[in-house]
Amino acid sequence: MTTDQTTNAAEKAPEPAAAPAAPAVDPRLLVREAGFAGYLAEFKRKMKSGDLGSVPVVLGLILIGAIFQGITGDFLNADNLTNITKWVAGPGLIAVGIVFVLLLGEIDLSLGSIAGVSAAIAAVLSVRSGLNEWLACLIAIAAAVAIGALHGFFFAKIGVPAFVVTLAGLLAWSGLQMYVLGDKGTVNVLNDGVLANLDTYFLGDGDVAFTWGFAVLGIALFGAGQFLDAKRRGDAGLPARPMSEIALRTGVLAVIGLVAAYMLNQDRGLPLPLVIFLSIVVITDFVLRRTSYGRQIFAVGGSVEAARRAGINVAWVRISVFMISAGMAALGGLFIASQQGSADKLLGSGNVLMNSIAAAVIGGTSLFGGRGKTWSALLGILVIQSIITGLDLVHVNQAIQYMITGAVLLGAVVLDSVSRRTQKSSGRG
Prior knowledge:
Elements: H1 3-12, H2 27-33, H3 36-48, H4 55-72, H5 78-87, H6 89-103, H7 111-128, H8 133-158, H9 162-181, E1 186-188, H10 194-200, E2 202-203, H11 208-235, H12 243-265, E3 270-271, H13 272-290, H14 292-302, H15 304-309, H16 314-340, E4 342-344, H17 352-362, H18 375-393, H19 398-425
Antiparallel strand pairs: 1-4, 2-3
Transmembrane segments: 52-72, 84-104, 109-127, 133-155, 162-181, 201-225, 246-264, 270-288, 315-337, 349-368, 375-394, 400-418
Region (Disordered): 1-21
InterPro entries: ABC_transp_permease
C-alpha cells in the first residue's frame, strides 16, 4: 500500500465516539439530597457570599424588642403589639408599592403626596358631598392609579427620568391635595363609617376564635401550598423540597402565627388593618413569584435591553408598575386617614414616604433593581414601626426619631451595597 493510500485510509477511519457528556445537575437538587446538612452548608455559603436574605431584619427585630422591653418593661405587652400591627398598615401598603418600583431600579418620590390626595378625595366626596363611602374610596384609588399611569407614561414613553417625573408629582399632587381640602384644610372622617372602621374594627368584635381561625387557616394554606408545589415539581422531574423541609417551614410558621394569635387575643383580637395588609402582601408576592407578569418585572429590573430582546413590552411593564405603586399608596393613605381620624394637608408629608422607602430597603429589596419581594415591606415596616413605638415609649422627641430612622436607612443601603459587591466577587452577582 502506498503512502498516499495509507494517509487516505487513516483520514477515512472513523473517529472513536466521544463519551456522552454527564448531564448537568441542579445544585439545588444536591443540597436537598444532602438533607439538613446540605441546607446548613448552603446557608453558610450564602452568608459568606453576601446573600444575607432576611437574616439581618429578623435579628434586628429580636434586638429591638429586647432593648425596648428591657428599658420600658411595656414594649412586649399585648396592647402595644396590637397597636404596632395596626399602625404598620398605612406606611406598609405604600412600601409594598415601592417594592414594585425598586424592582425596576427606579424610585417614586410622589407616593406620599398620592396617599394624601387620595385620602382627601375620599373624605371630601363622602363627608362634604354625601357620596357613598365605598364609592368615594374606589374613586380615590382609581384617581391614584390614573396618576400612576401618567407618571409611567412620561417615564416609559417620553423618556423623562422617574426621579424627575415623581419629584414633579410630589409637588403637583400636594398642591391638588390642598385644593381639594379647601380653606379649612381638614376633613374629619364619618364616625363609624368605612374610613373610620379601617383602623378601629376588630374581626368578630374581639372574639378569640377569629384570631385562632385566621392563624390556623394561614398555616394550613401555607403547608398545603408547599406540599402541592413540591409534588408538581417532583412529577415534572424538577428539584423539589423534601417533606422534612416542608414540615420544618410549616412548623416555624405555626409557632410564629400561633404566638401572634395568642398575643393579639390578650388584647382586642384580630385587627382589620393587619388582615388587609397581610392579604395584600400574600397576593402581591404570588404575582411577583408565580406569574409571567412578575417575571417580566424582574427581567426589566435586571436588564432593560435583555428584556426587550426577549420580547417583553418594557414600556407597559414600567407604566403598570407605577400604576400599582400609586394604587398601593392610595390604599395606604386611606388607612393613615383612618388612624388619625381625618384627611388633612399634612397627610402623606413628613416622614411617611421616607419610612416607606426605608421599610422596603431594610426588608431586603435592592435599590439597584432586580432583587426583592413584597415580604420585604412587611419585615421592614415592622422594624421601622417598632423603633418609632419604642422611642415614643421612652419619650424621645421627633427630631431624634428622624435621625435614628435615617441612620437605620443608611445602614440598610450600605449593607445592600456591600452585599452586592461581595456577591459579585464570589461570582454570584
